[in-house]
């Protein structure tokens, strides 16, 4: 049944795309003066290696912005009750914006059916690759008039509950259409001719000439080493290198010593962080049906970063600290900044603790909380907690972009990997940052983190995700550790149903949130 749903969904997407492309032609005809700076480029020749019959290559095709930047901004309603709406920003004012037709983006991966690549070899069936227009590929500066560094993000969002994205190519920059380690292509060693072209409807909409919307190249495939191919870790490392290649500064004023007082300065609303929770997702049970696993994202929707630094009280003894020593704690301070990245204040906000088991790095205590709530006979959430997750401390990392259209969003945050941000046991101090516009996603699958439901009866429940949890209802800021703009948007609740099949297999079904359809990696509908 779910497989049929997948086929039906694919058909629906195709119909929506057909309608969107028709709308593109109509819209472009209404704005004949619209001209895009985009040009599709390619080198004359690309050499790639074949490993076990597969080729991993970006194929060399790039989108270049000549004389002006190219930028698309896309948003979805916070209630997730509407489609993604995208706008082509052509100038400094809203009067220059061009709205893209509804249905132009069925996902956050980019403009649907933007370009096609054909790989040709005499006597063989052509290979056809279709790609959305993400524009946030690995970018290279190709002219003197462009900005000193790339102002656009690397890659397009993956989280199904993303709320906004920015895609673009800076002036005099060239961005790859495919990742360096793109999808595996089954190609034998030899010489191939490649032809890439922007879909005619998109080319006409953006005012791209036929010559600028087409590129040709020769692909030479040579046999590589046997029994080797890029792994997920290799691809992730390549993505990380690309994401941080031109990042030399986080834009924040340095602080090298612990503050001498608990509090100084004040948090200004116009530059304040604002922690929020997305709905729990990727919800499933373990094989025994005794643990509920899920993903959860806490993100910063404010106009400034959430910056927390930790300092040991005894710096001299830090290097000698061993497992179980009381020195495996740091006093934590939250820092405030203005729009130029200058420090304006700080506040003592708790502590960091070193977690050796399964982590081997530092966590900020009490950053988020996960609870499973019961429901009444009408299916409405009750306040009583049925199961608590023991996960409460976190290493703050900007794992994924949630909404890069918020004010002052950090397009290319520095703090994106656990290795450099979370610190080792001997660290005397550390800084953890959740950049504005970005979220920190954790998947609860370990024992204690996932909900233990072995003794929980079938029925309706709610997964609660609470950012900056309240420990003293009715107290100052309800006892929350961190200072932020708005405490009313810290919670999210996802309705789920636990049930047992006729064969005695326990399962969980999550209620759909708005129009979002969650698909698992094996092609099944989650909700």
From TrEMBL:
Keywords: Signal. It comes from the Bacteria. InterPro entries: Lysyl_oxidase (IPR001695). It holds the Pfam family Lysyl_oxidase. Residues 235-263 are annotated as: Disordered. Residues 247-256 have a biased composition (Acidic residues). Residues 235-246 have a biased composition (Low complexity). The keyword Magnesium does not apply. Residues 1-31 form the signal peptide. GO terms for molecular function: copper ion binding; oxidoreductase activity, acting on the CH-NH2 group of donors, oxygen as acceptor. This is Uncharacterized protein. It comes from Nocardioides euryhalodurans.
């Amino acid at each position: 049944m779910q497989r049929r749903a997948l086929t039906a969904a694919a058909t629906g997407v195709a119909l929506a795309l057909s309608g969107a492309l028709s709308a593109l032609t109509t819209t472009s005809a209404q704005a004949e003066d619209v001209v895009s700076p985009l040009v599709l480029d390619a080198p004359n020749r690309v050499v790639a290696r074949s490993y076990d019959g597969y080729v991993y290559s970006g194929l060399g095709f790039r989108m270049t912005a000549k004389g002006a930047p190219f930028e698309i901004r896309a948003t979805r309603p916070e209630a997730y009750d509407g489609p993604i709406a995208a706008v082509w920003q052509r100038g400094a004012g809203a009067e220059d914006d061009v709205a893209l037709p509804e249905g132009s983006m069925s996902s956050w991966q980019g403009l649907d059916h933007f370009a096609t690549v054909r790989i040709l070899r005499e006597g063989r069936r052509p290979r056809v690759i279709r790609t959305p227009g993400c524009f946030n590929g690995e970018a290279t500066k190709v002219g003197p008039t462009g900005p000193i560094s790339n102002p656009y993000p690397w890659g397009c969002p993956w989280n199904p509950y993303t709320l906004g994205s920015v895609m673009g190519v800076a002036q005099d920059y060239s961005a790859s259409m495919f990742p360096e380690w793109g999808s595996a292509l089954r190609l034998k060693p030899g010489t191939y001719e490649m032809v890439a072209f922007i879909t005619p409807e998109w080319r006409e909409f953006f005012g791209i000439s036929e010559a600028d919307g087409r590129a040709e190249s020769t692909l030479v495939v040579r046999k590589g080493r046997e029994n080797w191919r890029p792994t997920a870790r290799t691809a992730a490392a390549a993505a990380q290198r690309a994401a941080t290649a031109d990042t030399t500064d986080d834009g924040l004023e340095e602080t090298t010593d612990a503050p001498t007082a608990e509090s100084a300065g004040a948090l200004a609303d116009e530059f304040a962080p604002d922690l929020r929770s997305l709905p729990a997702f990727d919800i499933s049970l373990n094989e025994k049906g005794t643990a509920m696993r899920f993903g959860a994202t806490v993100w910063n929707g404010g106009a400034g970063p959430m910056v927390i630094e930790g300092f040991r009280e005894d710096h001299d003894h830090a290097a000698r600290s061993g497992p179980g020593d009381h020195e495996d704690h740091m006093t934590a301070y939250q820092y405030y900044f203005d729009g130029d990245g200058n420090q304006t204040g700080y506040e003592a906000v708790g502590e960091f603790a070193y977690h050796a088991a399964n982590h081997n790095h530092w966590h900020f205590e009490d950053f988020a909380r996960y609870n499973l709530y019961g429901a009444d006979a009408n299916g409405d959430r009750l306040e009583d907690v049925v199961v608590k997750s023991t996960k409460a401390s976190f290493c703050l990392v900007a794992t994924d972009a949630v909404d890069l259209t918020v004010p002052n969003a950090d397009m290319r945050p520095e703090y994106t990997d656990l290795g450099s941000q979370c610190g080792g046991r001997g660290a005397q101090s550390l800084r953890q940052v959740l950049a504005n516009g970005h979220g920190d996603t954790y998947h609860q699958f370990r024992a204690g983190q996932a909900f233990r439901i072995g003794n929980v009866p079938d029925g309706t429940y709610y997964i609660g995700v609470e950012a900056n949890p309240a420990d003293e209802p009715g107290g100052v800021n309800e006892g929350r550790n961190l200072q932020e703009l708005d405490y009313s948007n810290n919670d999210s609740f996802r309705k789920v149903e636990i049930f047992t099949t006729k064969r005695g297999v326990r399962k969980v079904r999550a209620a759909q949130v708005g129009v979002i359809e969650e698909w698992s990696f094996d092609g099944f509908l989650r909700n």
